[in-house]
Specification:
177 residues, 2 strands, mainly alpha
Amino acid sequence: MEYSFIYDSEKMVNELIHRTMVAAGVDFEILQGGTIKVIDDLSEEQLKSISNELDGFGIKIQTKENRDVVEEIKICVKKMVHDGDIRNIKISELLSNQLGFSYPYLSNLFSSKTYTSIENFYILVRIEKVKELVLLENASLSEIAHDLSFSSVPHLSNQFKKVTGLTITQYLKFRKK
């Protein structure tokens, strides 16, 4: 028997961080966008222990000194898509407001580090969300297109084919095999 697991990745990460911080005896608060506010400074030993624990799950600790703006852009775009907050929001405004840099700066930095544009990354993230939603089988393509701000079902289908090389029907058949 085959099972599909549908999960909220942000909720999982927050729970993992929560458990790790509690186990380390650290007073903290989880803020928006994956930011953790630590009440008292961490000792080197605590920081190393927490970092080692979270590193096994692909979670890196970032401080203002070692800030990775490209990673922050990716996180913001993913959060925007997964929270469903993409209608009537300009990605340029959102990123500029969240990260405190002009959009042209963010766009140039992202392109130079990833060799793709923020817009292309945004499309890729939305297509990943489409894959997740079509597997649930409880939403129509028109609902999915609307929820993910595609102008129409044909636009969604064309973007899906362009990114994956498969039609949505072919993708579903492939996944079921």
